[in-house]
Structures are given as structure tokens and as C-alpha cells.
Structures
1.
Amino acid sequence: MTINIRTDSAAPRTGRAPTSLRFAAAALAAVALAALLAACDTPQTTFEPRSDAAQRVHTIYIFVIVAASIVGFLVLAAMAYILVKYRERPGRVPQQIHGNNTLEITWTVVPILILVAIAVPTIIWIAGTTQPADDDALHVTAVGHQWWFEFRYPGLGPDGGDLVTANELRIPVGRQVAITLEAKDVIHSFWVPRLVGKTDMVPNRVNQLEKFKATEIGEFYGQCAEFCGSAHALMRFRVHVDSHADFDRWVASMNAPPEAPAVGSAEEGGLRVFRAQCATCHTIQGVSEGADGPNLTLFGDRATVGAGILPSTTANVKEWVSDVRALKPIPDPREVPIEGVSRVMPTFYVEDPDKDLLTEAQVDQVTAYLQSLRLR
Ligand SMILES: [Cu+2]
């Protein structure tokens, strides 16, 4: 049977721009896109893996893309050939074919071979993600909170307890890291595109992240990858891959109580403000034991403030402490009662004497104090 589809060439052609104009528009769009992409800073690119785990994902990704491109190209080329060769011509009746074993076996066997070639390494690597950790692996528990990350290193803290930090994970280069994932409130997801992930952090459930070894010293961007409420897009973190010596120095410094600030200094005033207003929520090793807020030990050495959203400059820390809600859509407990969620950070200074819990001078002092908490 032949089917003839006729286009009515007599129909008026309306609403179409001339071909040359459409071509120019398409060319312009392509140039604009290329310029945009070239200007991109891509700290979260999966195309530059820097760990064994991310490298495996990258390898299989490229393999699948290449295989799919070859198949796609061959199918389109065959289609183009058939369309031209067997186009309708007056007076020619198509040859009638009933079955072709060679053809059918070929187009069954070839896709099976391609799928097996993709499936075998994929399944081997997926199975590999559940391997037990190496004996010398570094163990870390990462806990997702609305809207920040807590990192606990069992056994590395004071008296053999947990060493705790927040929003910036430090790991040594070349050593296997085994991360256990938990969540405090709602579902979050842990993802460091150039190193590892993504895996969900689920309340009342313990998930194991794929073990990985970072292959290069550097700073890597992480991100919550599961919608978790109003500030989800601003729930980020950093991973610092350090040399072994730098990592050990950081661990020792995290465990040492900070030096007392000089009498009469801004930092000393800041410590007083901290004890009065911040210590119930924030722990600083050797100074306070707070609950519900990120651990601020060695905060002066963090690269970021606000769960990875801003560089930790004096101006940014000051703004964060003054009015956290200007930077992140965190509900205000004075306006919206929050149930079942950890306590959230108050707004301290908005130049409104009726509301302000701190003066601007006190904000400056506590900012100076936090920034003085540095590695020794
Ligand atoms: Cu989240």
C-alpha cells in the first residue's frame, strides 16, 4: 500500500519571515549563546571531575553520549538516504516486502550489544558504591538542616568525641572519605558535582554516600539538591581538599580552645555579646555549647558565611549578624510561629530601637570576635 501525502502548494504562505532573516536571527542567537557560555564560571561542572567517584560517572557519561551520538547519526543518515532514494516518482510502484530475516536479526542484535556495553560497567560501578570503606578511610557524618550543613568527624573531637564544623567540609587529599548522611528536619540532598553525590539526606534514616578519594587539593562547591523550603537555593557548602599536614593542623586547632581576647579590645566586647546573645545556639570549642545553630569554631578561617552563599568578608558577616533575613528567606518566628523546626537565627539589628536586640557597635564587636577565631 502506498500513502500519498499532498501538500497544497497553492495555499497562501502567510506569517513567515523571509528565509534570510530567519537565518540571521538563528545565527545571532547561536553567537549570543556561545558568548554566554564562554563567560560562565563553572565551579559546579561535572565535566572536570576531581575524585575517583566523579571520574567514574564522567567516564560512563562520555561513553553513553558517544554511543548515543553514533547511533543517532547512523539512524538520521539512513533515514535521509531512504527519504531521497525512495521518494515518490510518477509511474513507479513501490516494491512490496514481507519480512527480511537478516535485517530483523541485525536490528535486534546490534542494540542488544550496545545496551550490554553500557549496562556492564554501569552495574559494576553501582555495585561498587556499596563496598565497605577502606580501613584507613576518614569517616564523616553530614547532617542537613534547614538551611545549612553540619559535619561531624567521629573520634577526632575533644576526648575522643565528635569534631564538629558547619558549611565547610575539610578532607585530606588522596584519602578515602566515607560520609554518612542524615537530616534534622526535612529531606535534603548532598551533592558536590566535581567530587561526589548526589544522595538524599532523609530524616530518621541513615544513608551512605558513595566513598570517594579527592585527587586534587582545592576548594569545591556543594549544594543541597532536594527542594527543602524557602531558603533551599541558598543552602550551599564548600569542600576544602587539603594536604595531609594542613588537615592535621586544622583538626588540632579545632580542638584547642581559642586564646582569650585582649582586655579592652573590640574582640573582648564581642565575646561578651556572643555569650549573651549567641551562645545558646552556637558552639565555639572551649567557649560555648549551643544547640540548633552551626558550630562557629575557627569561623575566622571559613571562606563563606550563610551556608556557602557569601564570601566571609567583614561587611558580609556584619550584615548576616544584623539582619539575616535580608540575605536569606528564613521565616521570622516573631511573625510566623514555626513548628517542629529547629530554632532559627533572630534578626539583631535593623536600626529600629523597639526591635533591635543589639546596637550597631555590638554587631561590629561580635563580628570582630568571630573573625578573630583563626587557625593556630
Ligand atoms: Cu536542603
Note: Confidence is low (pLDDT under 50) at residues 1-12.
2.
Amino acid sequence: MFAGHIGAGMLIARAEPRMNVGGFIFAALLLDVVLWLLVLLGVESVSIPADFGHTHQPLFSFPYSHGLPAGLAWSGLAGCGVWLAGSRFGSAKRRAAALVAAAVFSHWLLDVLVHAPELPLLGSHSAKLGLGLWQNMPVALAVEASVVLVGLCAFLPGSALPRGRKLWLATLALLLLAFTVAGMTLAPAPPSGAAMAASSLLTIVVACALLGWLGQGSGR
Ligand SMILES: [Zn+2]
């Protein structure tokens, strides 16, 4: 899931107009940033199964980015970071920190919905969670598209952004949704897990940079 996390970030951004929406979107994608960095470092792994062309689902071993304790820990760390650095939020910085932590953890919840049972409840050898909605890809993509649309409809009307930036932000979010749909239906198998990690990380960084740039002015 990629665009769905962007939708969740926009939905949560509605609650804190003093912060750039791009910050919430990055928070909602943080667990994947950690995943791809750890894959490139050889700490976690992703493998491409022989039936990838049919399922479009790699196989993950990702206890330190997507385990339940890891998800909670990364959420807590991100929240603490905002709390420590968030003097501009004044008395509301505890709330801003809680919202950022919620954005980080929303990633884990959405991933549990779509992944096969592969998100560790504790460590690598513990029970794994995952409701496997990707087994029914059209439904999974419809749910993901709905999250994006709900996020856009929640964020845009109350945002202080100029109309032009709102339009570009919506266009980019919908383009990233189309990119996600293509990736989960048409894309060929990546040559390796490392190649997938590098391209995914680059995509997240570029998308968040663009969304954050467009979101300048959403933080009042
Ligand atoms: Zn993820």
C-alpha cells in the first residue's frame, strides 16, 4: 500500500492545521522508509516470489519496521521527536505529537488490513498478523482509493492553502493512487529485493518532498 497511507496522512492533517500536511504524510509512510532502509542495510528482507507477476506481492521479513512492538516504538519515537522540537505549537505540541504518532501507527493498521499474515505480533518467530485483503486485489484497491478520497475530502476544504496548491495536491495524490494501482496490477517483477527497496525509497522521498512543497502554507 502506498497511496492509502498518503490518504491517512491527509485525514489526520485535518486535525492540526499548523503543521505542513507533508509532515503527516511522511509520518504515515515512516514504517516503509524504515523498511526499505533496513532492507538496503541487510537487516530486513524482501523477496520476489515466482508468482509475483500474478500476485504482485513480495514476501517480507520485517520485524523491526512492521512488527507490532516496532510500529508502536516508531510511533512513540516520532511523537517524542515532535514534542521535543515542536515549540512552535506552543501549548498544543502534545496534541501535535499525538497526531504524528497516530499517523505513524495508521500505517501499521492499514498494512494489517491488506498484507498476508506476515506482520509479527512480537519478534520474527512470533505469530503473524495480516487480514490478506490483497488476495482480493480489486476490493483492496477500491478500499485504498476510498482512503485517498476520504483523506482529500477531509483535508482540502478546511486547509488554508491557496486554491492552486490544493488543486496540485489533489492531482498529485490521485496520480500516486494511479501509480499504486498500476504497481499492484501491471508492474513486472522487480529484478531483486534491493532494487525494489531502492526504487520504493526514492519514490517515497520524491513524493513526500513534492507533497510537502505543495503543502507549504498548510502549516499556519
Ligand atoms: Zn508498510
Note: Residues 163-185 form the longest helix (23 residues).
